[in-house]
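Office hours follow-up: a student asked to see two folded examples consecutively, so here they are.
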Amino acid sequence: MSRTQALSWRSRLGGRVRGWFSTEPERGFDALPVRVHGTEFARTAAAPVHVKGFDQPLVWVTFALLMIGLVMVYSASIALPDNPRMGAGYTPTYFMIRHAASMGIGFVAALLVFQIPLSTWERWSPWIFIAAIVCLILVLMPFIGKSVNGARRWIGLGLMNFQPSEFAKLGVLMYAANYMVRKLDSHADEQDGKRIQSAEKFFAAVTPMAIAVAIVGALLLAEPDMGAFMVIAVIAMGILFLGGVNARMFFLIAALLIGVFVIIIASSEWRRERIFAYLDPWSAQHALGKGYQLSHSLIAIGRGEIFGVGLGGSVEKLHWLPEAHTDFLLAVIGEEFGFVGLVVIIGLFMWLTRRIMYIGRQAIAMDRVFAGLVAQGVGIWIGFQAFINIGVNLGALPTKGLTLPLMSYGGSAILLNLIAIAIVLRVDFENRVVQHGGRL
């Protein structure tokens, strides 16, 4: 071996040895060589772990509900400019354009919200709840809140009317999930052969949450908006139960809430009349009064029969059915697409709710309790509100002013619904990262 060859061999050997022990591996390649059956893989590029960033079926079902809602809002509101009560300045596309603009704002907000880790939401949750309380107080002020049909529920923001009750749903949801993580130990202890939870002391565990829900409820009833109060109460109760409150405590909370709602209804004359109208909407006393919306909703659904009268063919939306583009959008869907259309919409909401609950359960199984409770809270929110709206349109429940999530006309409702879905997608994304061995 010549001197030149020896120097070259020593240089290569020294470079290889230094490469093995170097703390800064060559860019894009493994630092340590691997030899398998005489083949060296020292120069094999490191294979990155690919994490599928979001639940695509959930996104597509949400998108389908939004698009169906946009088309149906246009169909249900196209004749509203001809209504003398609407005044001048309205065009057939007025409500559709505003609804589409709200969806665009919601998409942008959802993209931004998706970037926020759940750990950040957990830190912010008390402040989000306080902000919701502040908004509920502001809307009651005459020079800030906007009164429509005797209810002061909106704050005018130009492009859309912001409804603080929608924000309050998110605020209570976040606060309840954070409260369960901080105050209640969801793991049971074994003592004398019995499982005893740290939430056994009922009043000590539930009183802070009860006070929070009572404050929100008092502000909502002052608007008044009993429908939103019902949704918020169910969200809080559901998160308490899913977070570890035992069955005895859960049924006690449910009984207390039912008692509160019965007292509220019994103490209000117009609420009592609405219940009586629900029981007999066709009577001469109620058909043109409190039962007017329900009776025309049932007429619309009855006209649709199996396959409907076709898109745009609804008669009830021609000034017969009030709020056809908001609370009673499902009745127009039933009239134009019949029983088949209703089954499709109900099926989509059932799948969406089940999928969201599954994502939350998956997060809890990974010991990500806050993320899991938030996701399941969103599932309760969307599922219960859709259940109430569908029940009202079908005459199974008394009339309440609750819109159909992701579909009915309403800027702040669409905005908050999309933000809630984005948070669920973030929970799913973090679940996938953890499953692939990543760090959050």
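And the second, which I mentioned at the end of office hours:
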Amino acid sequence: MFMVSAALLLSSSLASHTCTSRSLLSNVEPLQGSDQITPTTYQHLAPTEPSLPYSFPDSYRDLIPYSLFHKLSRSKLSILLILILFPVFSFSQDSLNNEFIMGPHMAKKVSDSTLFNKKLILTPQQKKKRIWLVAGANVVGYSTAMVGLYSAWYKDYPHSGFHSFNDFAEWKQVDKVGHLYSANIESRNEMELWRWTGMERKKRIWIGGMSGAFYQTVIEVLDGFSSQWGWSWADFGTNILGSTVFVAQEFAWDDQRIKLKFSFHNKEYSDPALNERSNTLFGSSTANQFIKDYNGQTYWASANLRSFFPKSKLPPWLSVSVGYGADGMFGGTENIGKDKNGNIVFNRPDIKRYRQWYLAPDIDLSKIRTNSKALKFFLTFLSAFKFPAPALEFSNGKFKMHAIYF
């Protein structure tokens, strides 16, 4: 049920921002002569809303502890935000320096992402108009989405005084890393919108950079007033950390030298009982498992080598990544399932729950130079995901080599 409400939230936000992006881009005034530019339009590029039917029959709701049910659905809003909002917000990365001209005589260089590779003239009137458009789109789009989310989900559950609960021990903290990743990517997308307005550098970094944490924190507040859930300090902390990582890199380097990325692989088990349990918890379709199955998710910190060693002859796209994941998890904190009467219906303490660490090369697709704005946009979108590559895994005290890991 909550996945349906999350889809409602995101589709409303998507519609608002897609409309705004098109209207904003249509206001760009091209220069004359050799500096003439053509705005890139996002029409046909944004993916359609994924079909994410709620995978739990009504009879299963009472079989799953509410904290487990909550984490399987709500925290994966992070990945949905990446899939749906990233193509709308994102402006293509470019390793070349670009210039924004804020007025007829004022120029400010920026070292990374902008949608255009040539000069943009922004008069004070244009700058003001763009700021109002972006601000309005954020307020209207997000407010509408929140109202839809509340109506579709929270209003059907009893309210309570504001309270918190501790879910830090669940899922080997893979879901917490997911919160960090989501807030970071959302902050990146929002800052690019504010960059487009011509806003002064420090302001756009702070306003755009902390937007990811703010958007996710609003949902935490709603949880805090619902008797079914509660405010999670762990979720709040990782939301703040994800946006802080983004902001710190922008202030230090005017670039995201270390990008956070995501990868996923389907999990299949030789034991039919495990497949049944997995399908009950995470859904049987790839789309549901992509959103819910922490056993198949890996989060990466990918460092671009050339940005740290600018005088080297390394390819500008070459990166090295450190990944984190976990496996053997068929419950939030233990591999036990109970029915609505408290009877144990699944009990597999023999399955070890363990963490996984990875080291792998990576490709920063946003650093690949191309004159095609459409291709650049697509490569930037893909840069939020880890490129499949050989990987060295360390888990259970042993090393394991993967020819290709994603």
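Two things to take away from it. The chain has one domain: 2-405. The chain has 13 helices and eleven strands.
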